[in-house]
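Entry type: protein chain
Record version: 2
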Amino acid sequence: MRVVGVRSLVTVTVLVAGLATAGPAGAARPAVGRAPSPRVYKTAVVTRAGIVLRYPATWTVFPLTAKGLAAMERRVAKKDPDAVLAPAQQATAVRDDKFLAVDLESPGPTFRDNVSALVDDSTSLPSSLADFQSTIASVWTPLGGTVVDTTSGTVRGETFYRADVTHPLTLLNGATVTTRVGQLVVAHGAGTTIVTVSATDDPADVAVIDQILGSVRPR
């Protein structure tokens, strides 16, 4: 069986490019499995991905069916036409993602912070942290990304791997921002679940990434 797939890890870049059109204050990285405050975050039980996670309460959850996503996009377009996903990006989200929440509240032409979870039934967990590091570098370096950190550990007895990457992204208005991508990989049956949080690369949004990935636990 193939180890964590390049297509799965990089699917996020297709999605986040369509969410370019900004976030809250810093904290230390929490341990995986430790949930942030329920006053600020909501809990999502992502049954199809076999996980529970928490995300900022002000973010909007997108329904991941063709009909549901299209309806949500029409609502989004009335508020912010620049935040609408292109048809190909909508198709990718419906095909690959089991959960998608996006920050639609930030004003102005900026990147939209988001979290997604997808399942890849064709790949297994890496055999080691070195194996994971090699895969992450092979995915992000050709895209102009910089690997900031890679770690591994366990939550509720399940092994996880995490990567943090910075990545330059061109917004719809032509400006370029440096985004921060955090990816957490855990086993899901014979395959894997990949949780990806994408945000702007500043201390406030890095703290949001840490909070979300720190809340992930097996269901």
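Comment: Confidence is low (pLDDT under 50) at residues 13-18, 21-39.
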